Amino acid sequence: MRVCTRRRSRTLRLWLLIVFLSLHLLVVSLVLSIYHTSCELHSYPDIQTSISFSVQNTSASTSTMAAAGSDTQEVEMDSTADNLAKLEALYSHPLYNLPTPPLPDGDWLLKLRTQKKEEEHSTQQWLSANEDGYDPIRWNASAETHPPWLRFHLGISRWQMYQHKDPSLSALTQQMASHRIVSAVQKSGGTQLKLVMSFPNYGQALFKPMKQERHEETNVNLYYFSDFERHNAEIAAFHLDRILGFRRMPPVVGRLVNVIREIKDITTDHKLVTTFFTSPVGNACFYGKCSYYCSTEHAICGRPLKIEGSMAAMLPDLSLAQRRSWRSPWRRSYSRSKLAQWETDSNYCDSIKKTPPYDRGTRLVDLIDMSILDFLMSNMDRHHYETFEKFGNDTFLIHLDNGRAFGRHSKDEPSILSPLVQCCRVRRSTLLRLHLLSLQSYRMSDVMRASLSLDPLAAVAPLLTEQHLSALDRRLETVIQTIQDCLQQHQHHSDVIYDDISDYPGA
To answer: Is the pLDDT of residue 117 over 50?
Structure first.
């Protein structure tokens, strides 16, 4: 027993001695290493000098970059402020604030009325202005409490989608950009994936997700009918339509959407649910069901969960406000080899002018307005347009579906202007606004840049590249020159200019 105890004690002392010697050797090696490094630095003073200069240069460079960055930021802020001032001045111009007489009840698309028998109906209801039926939703009597969606619908008139200074427009776009989404289902029809998003206060918006980067130009070998729909084009088209003073497009705003939480988890669309998957890099993706670009090769993917998209306010339900679809007389053939009649017949417009509804009223100049808008944003995909059936032929054209605009900034497509070139007819109000936007004080690219900067997605990246903004100025000059050519071809200006603002004193 004593022998075992002595052996264990001797073994323990031996291990302690080994540990002590190891620690001692480690401390000695560290001291020698520090001493050696110190000697090397003293032996090579140039190293110390270079280190010193490197620190000083880095410090100086950082200071210079900070100063330059500060200057650049100040210049950008000044430029943004100037452009916003231009935009405000543009919208304050008399051309955008022309006096309009009160509209009769028949010139409003929808209206609210109070039922006479309060015991049967104690609240107001939303119904068609021709009183052909009620919407199941009931609203409070006070107009201030109506949600922005209803105020937008009630503001649609015979001549415009919304008023120039509509107070509900800001609230509507803000809700589409930020309010909770309670439902997301795929919209039927069409060649590409679109979703109908619903909100808690009965509002709905059409969501077009991001399919390509903003700086990407459309492939030169791609036909216009095979192009992608771009979310930023929908947003930019709304701003351009407003800047031109048309106001014929439903409000559109950008939004970041969570692919899982705001689409997959809340959708009741069983076909849509089956198309969700996770990409090899962990991004949440889906592709939906449609006739062309709905496959894993064309999937919509978050980064990793959120995806950009455009939210366009939905128009009133067709049960309340029927719309009529019109085939555009300048519709393209949608063939890779066949040309349309207007592309081969230089006198094509002569027959159109004799054909209803283009033989009277404002339908022809409204169509030419739309062609000017399309040329400025290079949209070749205008095969149809819609009007509200209630207003018959005397109403504005709804500028819907602009996702294939702004595809190429490096090329202008003159054929889009064929209605203007062949008919040589234009509204006086349109011409005056085009001239206004060509002036340095209201330059189109500047006011467009300012207007787009107010969209929520502008915080991620500019919605249009500088090349696209420059293209707007270039194309504007082409439109104005085309009208000048028309005026020179006709003896009387009244043959070209449709005077829709005879009381306006401008030239």
So the answer is: no
Residue 57 has pLDDT above 70, yes or no: no
Angle between helices 428-438 and 444-452 (to 10 degrees): 90
Q: What angle do CA 289, 291, 292 make, to 5 degrees?
A: 100
**pLDDT tens per residue across span 197-234:** 999 988 999 999 998 888 887 777 666 666 778 999 99
- β-strands 426-427, 497-498 pairing: parallel
The structural domains of the chain, with segments of one domain joined by +, span 34-92, 105-313, 319-498
Q: Is the pLDDT of residue 98 over 50?
A: yes
User: Residue 52 and residue 193: Cα distance in Å, rounded?
Assistant: 60
Read out DSSP for 263-330?
IITT---HHHHTT-EE-TTS-EEE----SSS-SGGG-EE-SSSEEEEEEEEPPPPTTTS-EEEEE-TT
| pLDDT, tens digit, 9 for 90 and up, residues 352-374 | 999 999 999 999 999 999 999 99
Q: Can 412 be counted among the known catalytic residues?
A: no
If we measure between CA atoms, which residue out of 89, 291, 270, 287 comes closest to residue 188?
Answer: 291
The annotated binding site is made up of 192, 208, 229, 312-315, 386, 401
With vertex at residue 416, the alpha carbon angle to CA 475 and CA 376, rounded to the nearest 5 degrees, is 30
User: Which one of the listed residues 135, 166, 269, 381 is annotated catalytic?
Assistant: 381
277 DSSP β-pair partners: 285
Extract the tokens encoding 48. Answer: 């110390």
Report in angstroms the alpha-carbon separations of 45 from 41, 49, 55, 57: 6, 6, 16, 18
Residue 226: CB atoms within 10 A of its CB come to 15
Closest CA to 223 of 286, 177, 292: 292
Name the token pair of 474. Answer: 């270039």
- Rounded to 5 degrees, φ, ψ at 201 are -100, 35
User: Backbone dihedral region of 392: left (phi > 0), alpha (psi from -120 to 50 degrees) or beta?
Assistant: left
Structure confidence by residue, pLDDT tens digits, 245-283: 999 999 999 999 999 999 999 999 999 999 999 999 999
Strand (E) or helix (H) holding 215: none
Binding residues for Mn(2+): 229, 401
Q: Residue 25 carries which DSSP code?
A: H
For the CA atoms of 205, 404, 259, 249, the dihedral, rounded to the nearest 10 degrees, stands at -20
Compute the Cα dihedral for 295, 301, 307, 308 and give only its sign. negative
Read off the amino acid at residue 57: N
The annotated binding site for ATP is made up of 192, 208, 229, 312-315, 386, 401
